[in-house]
Design brief:
With 248 residues, the chain is mainly alpha-helical. It has nine helices and no strands. The longest helix has 28 residues, at 128-155.
């Protein structure tokens, strides 16, 4: 994963960041207590660590053909962090669900742009990518219908504007998964990226169930982060694969 980096210290730095991220995320879960084991500060710190990692990848690859991909991923991860802070209520004005959704959505636009630009630069032209995109869009639509739309009816709350906002957001996340899967079908080096994009959609559907459908099971809040955190990490560290491919 790190062999395409020019200097050994760059590899050590990025390995150190991924270890720090894992300690914050999984250590927070293992050492925490209560209904939600992970303290808020370890969750937020794990996302900050991924932002630092993403911009580090950009700093180390900015003079290479992978630089634009790294920058787009870093900006996308930054919007993910803003979304985390908005949903955690750590920004002025308290918890902001719509603001969080909007921030994550903008982040995914940057992710999708990065994937598409890389695919174009690398000459990815596998026709199965359209099947992958259609499959994930169907998953996103079905997931939204059962978790959000039907969930609103089941709780008696009725469908509101935020339920409808969740539809394009779910389709956007599904597009991320579809485009990433298309890259993985053309190049197995992107399998972890595809897994990350799929985990992001899964995490979001669990979160939507918690918010809109009264979905509940032990440690649901931690499960959301144990799928979301690795999703973001795999997307950020996909920069390594792009760097290796575009350097030849």
């Amino acid at each position: 994963m790190f062999t395409a980096l020019a200097q050994p210290w760059q590899r050590y730095w990025l390995i150190g960041l991924i270890v720090l991220w894992a300690v914050l995320l999984f250590g927070g879960f293992l050492l925490g207590e209560g209904e939600r084991r992970m303290p808020a500060w370890t969750r937020m710190a794990s996302s900050v660590t991924l932002v630092v990692a993403a911009f580090s990848w950009y700093a180390f690859s900015r003079t290479t053909p992978a630089g634009s991909y790294a920058l787009l991923i870093a900006i996308g991860m930054t919007f993910g962090l803003i979304g985390d802070l908005a949903l955690a209520g750590w920004l002025p004005g308290g918890r902001n669900v719509i603001g969080g959704i909007a921030s994550f959505g903008i982040g995914h636009i940057f992710y999708i742009t990065a994937f598409l630009r890389y695919g174009s630069a690398a000459g990815v032209n596998d026709p199965r990518r359209w099947i992958a995109l259609a499959f994930w869009l169907l998953i996103g639509l079905v997931g939204w219908y059962f978790v959000v739309y039907r969930g609103a009816a089941a709780t008696g709350e009725g469908v509101t504007i935020i339920h409808w906002i969740a539809l394009p957001y779910a389709l956007l996340l599904a597009t991320t998964a579809g485009v990433a899967t298309g890259l993985a079908l053309a190049d197995s080096g992107f399998l972890l990226l595809a897994l990350g994009a799929a985990l992001f959609l899964l995490s979001d559907l669990i979160l939507a169930g918690d918010m809109f459908s009264d979905l509940s099971f032990p440690l649901i809040g931690d499960v959301i982060w144990l799928t979301y955190g690795p999703a973001q990490m795999l997307i950020v560290y996909s920069i390594a694969t792009v760097l290796a491919r575009l350097r030849g």
